[in-house]
Amino acid sequence: MGSDGALPLHEGGCLPVIRFLATAIAAFVAYLFLTAGSGTIILWSESELIIGCILSVIVGIASYRTFCRSGSVRMANPLRLILLPIYAIIPLFIEMARANIDVAIRVITGNVKPGIVRVDTGMKTELGMLILANSITLTPGTLSVDVDDTTRELYVHLINVPDELREKKVVDARELFSIFNIPGWIRRIAE
Amino acid sequence: MNDIFFIAIAIVALLTLFAALRLAIGPTAPDRVVALDTINTLVVGAMILLAAYLGQTIFVDVAIVYALLSFLGTIAISKYIGGEL
Amino acid sequence: MIGTAAMICLGIGLLFNILGVIGILRFPDVYTRLHAETKMTTFGTIFLSLGVILYAGGMLIQTDDTQYLTLAIHTTIAVIALAFTNATGSHAIARAAHKSGQRPDPSVVDRLAEVKGK
């Protein structure tokens, strides 16, 4: 997804120091996860902790421009960080299981009616678009093909286009999912 | 439990062969990339199972790196097919 | 008990992986094959890894060896990396296929081709 022609999003935002700190802390947490169980200070050994600090500072300096590109640290809010795994485990996983059983039946019977529809997402940020596009790809018999950066619309390939969606020019993102309000969840997490 | 892991690894390895069949016959380039992506996913799964079977955690680290690198490969080939490279 | 649960997870994972590979051999065009690939093998591998995580948890309780904790955590990270990169990668393949001129072969509607005017 190229960023040219995208809507201007929180340009400027906050200070580079804060963006650097957010990146370094994220890198350090990832390092802690990867080295858990190596020693006796809770779970980590002394040398791993020191090396982790140095490496995360280096990674932070090298990549804070890419990691916090929009300049907004909305995702540092702990509530959003707690909501993200809950979203991944409950609504996404259940939709995923339903989609997989659906596609499994189609693999066996060979009954497909594919087509590409245009979906209005209503997302305001690039992160929201990213999570929604990935959720659409993983869930209900749908696959995001292309994205329109200016209007924030997705072109979605459906393995089975229902009759009521075939006539519509633009489909609302809510209509693709059946059990949970996935776009609502993503809006709560990312916006 | 170890026997079951071994059987699972054998089945996943066999599936890799069947995916390679699509890699060989796939009529167009995107079909082959799809088959390659399938093989990558299956190899990651097999590596995780092997780690449990042999009791070597290092295999999972290899699997993580393999997943990320195969993703880069997929992206590069897709960009080339799409004419953006 | 945990061993049985791990076995069930392994079975489900293998079943979905097998169906996914049958799907990429059987479906008619590249987009439907992507559906089979990206959903079913990802889901299958998630379940395979869930089996490994349960096995590691069981062994951790039995032997109290931190090696199994490392195994469980690293497997979780591998699964997260796999799910995220697979979804993005299939998006890239689909976009490239559409750009290179492949149209969904049996298709009832194609809004993207209408917009691109090809």
Automatic annotation (TrEMBL), chain B:
One of its GO terms (cellular component) is plasma membrane. Keywords: Cell membrane, Membrane, Transmembrane, Transmembrane helix, Transport. Pfam families: MrpF_PhaF. InterPro entries: MrpF/PhaF-like. This is Cation:proton antiporter. It is a multi-pass membrane protein. PANTHER family: NA(+)/H(+) ANTIPORTER SUBUNIT F1, NA(+)_H(+) ANTIPORTER SUBUNIT F.
TrEMBL record, chain C:
Keywords: Membrane, Transmembrane, Transmembrane helix. It comes from the Archaea. The chain crosses the membrane at residues 6-28, 40-61, 67-85. Pfam families: PhaG_MnhG_YufB (PF03334). InterPro entries: PhaG_MnhG_YufB. PANTHER family: ANTIPORTER SUBUNIT MNHG2-RELATED. This is Cation:proton antiporter. The lineage of its organism: Archaea, Methanobacteriati, Methanobacteriota, Stenosarchaea group, Methanomicrobia.
